[in-house]
């Protein structure tokens, strides 16, 4: 049997935003989108790092508004499909309608891994508007394989045309991915996607494990552009898939050039697995917490390593950045009233 | 002391919020035991309401209109999709409608801020659980220090957010943001909500950020928030200001609310803060009618 085709879902212009505090401008978006389109990238995801409607002081104000980001990418891509992300409770159906008017083909609706029922309404709205609806479970390491499978079944019931699990904390080893993707592909009959982070250096290996367990969509970012240790590195993933014989429709040299452009124009430096990113992966804390944790730890004179361990103990999720000062206070035993 | 003339009540919705309203109505010297109306006959919530001694009916709002006795106050603890039709049917009956769903169809009331207005309106909206928790602080801070922008992030434990709330997240965000703009006059208001699956379930929490036009001295903000906390605790004993800072024209206040009611788990302060507001509004109305009868 020939190795199956894998759809590579390029999240550079959405998840990469976490690494630059959501400061990408229209020129940066236009240039990378054009390069990705030329390389044959089938899907490019664009937006604030936490999705449309998420620009805020809590998780970072966008430099460029949602409509401009999406319209700019759409115009730069004659071929690739345009995707974006939304979180119920952060964005509304009004944001969805506005995004789809800009030519978004795919909207991913994301929820914490045990809370799939918050996606019901928005998956339905996306289907009604004629776009492709996909369901995403965040921080998926916090749920057992059979629970993830059940949550994915629910999302398919609400109208999801694909389901995806995020390794938001970059904490998986391949065996854990295999168990989860196997459970999900057994439970649903829509394409299953895996989104890896590289905190333990396992993102490409985990993505490959996902494909072998039945995933047919893999998320990746040019140069791994993403919070902390970064994401599955797009051009490396394409090369590895090619070596294993999985068709992707992406030109390897062209996607490598797109990644060179990304390194030159999107990021101050490519992501690296520093000690803070390593501990955030080990602690199972969302990689997007890195910058605010470093800032808070420095102000308080405590170790960011300890702050991540404390946040991991509290099982924090993205959006709970307001707990960082509390975690720091726990370490300094000062601050809040008892 | 002569007993108060009690008003007749009805509760729409038989979730945890509806059941807590029943308890509070039974404890109130101004309100008669409610007619409790559910959607489906034989639901668990209706059976619980009957066990509490209430008259129960299925069939939604029509059951209130068909009731044997006239109803003075209707509490709507259903959902934002159903609420507008409830008002359409009740408007001409003269009954007071107190909306615990997140809509902007009624006059928005927050007891410690504009509770006195509750007696003057037939249709009262209670914003949302996080609106009830955050607006007293936001109003106090922005009345003294005009706001350029306001942001509020709520975190509710997964177990405290039922199906209706999960389907009404859009209405929750829109209504809460509208109320923040109305009560603070901030040109820029942003709200988000996290549903936390952490174990043990964390208490309901609102993290408030106010960007002020002029610097707000931290000790003044501490005094203001302590005064709000004291007023709120008379209504909601588990209301607590967890932290409070002011620097670089940025005021940050975190409030946590734990529940103290028998029928509500301790983490679900979100339910308590809005059910307390509903009863407060109803009793205001009852006292007003008594004074003017």
Can you give a write-up of this model?
The complex is a heterodimer of chains A (338) and B (293). Chain A has helices spanning 12-15, 26-38, 66-76, 93-101, 120-128, 145-158, 174-187, 203-212, 234-243, 252-265, 275-283, 290-300, 304-313, 324-332; strands at residues 7-11, 43-46, 81-86, 106-112, 132-138, 162-166, 192-195, 217-220. With 338 residues, chain A is α/β, with parallel strands linked by helices. Chain A folds into two domains: 7-265, Aldolase class I (TIM Barrel), CATH 3.20.20.70; 275-332, Helicase, Ruva Protein, domain 3, CATH 1.10.8.60. In chain A, helix 7 (174-187) packs parallel to helix 8 and helix 11 (275-283) runs parallel beside helix 13. Chain B has 293 residues and is of the alpha/beta class. Chain B folds into two domains: 9-127 and 272-291, Rossmann fold; 129-268, Dihydrodipicolinate Reductase, domain 2. Helix content of chain B is 39%, strand content 24%. Chain B has helices at residues 16-27, 44-51, 61-65, 83-90, 111-114, 129-144, 163-167, 169-184, 218-235, 269-291, and strands at 9-12, 35-37, 55-57, 73-76, 96-99, 107-108, 123-125, 147-157, 188-196, 204-212, 239-247, 250-257. In chain B, the strands form two sheets. Chain B has a seven-stranded parallel sheet, with helices on both faces. In chain B, strand 6 (107-108), helix 5 (111-114) and strand 7 form a beta-alpha-beta unit. In chain B, helix 1 (16-27) packs parallel to helix 10 and helix 6 runs parallel beside helix 8.
Write the layout of secondary structure elements.
The complex is a heterodimer of chains A (338) and B (293).
Chain A: E1 7-11, H1 12-15, H2 26-38, E2 43-46, H3 66-76, E3 81-86, H4 93-101, E4 106-112, H5 120-128, E5 132-138, H6 145-158, E6 162-166, H7 174-187, E7 192-195, H8 203-212, E8 217-220, H9 234-243, H10 252-265, H11 275-283, H12 290-300, H13 304-313, H14 324-332
Parallel strand pairs in A: 1-2, 1-8, 2-3, 3-4, 4-5, 5-6, 6-7, 7-8
Helix pairs in contact in A: 2-3, 2-10, 5-6, 6-7, 7-8, 9-10, 11-13, 12-14, 13-14
Chain B: E1 9-12, H1 16-27, E2 35-37, H2 44-51, E3 55-57, H3 61-65, E4 73-76, H4 83-90, E5 96-99, E6 107-108, H5 111-114, E7 123-125, H6 129-144, E8 147-157, H7 163-167, H8 169-184, E9 188-196, E10 204-212, H9 218-235, E11 239-247, E12 250-257, H10 269-291
Helix pairs in contact in B: 1-10, 6-8, 6-9, 6-10
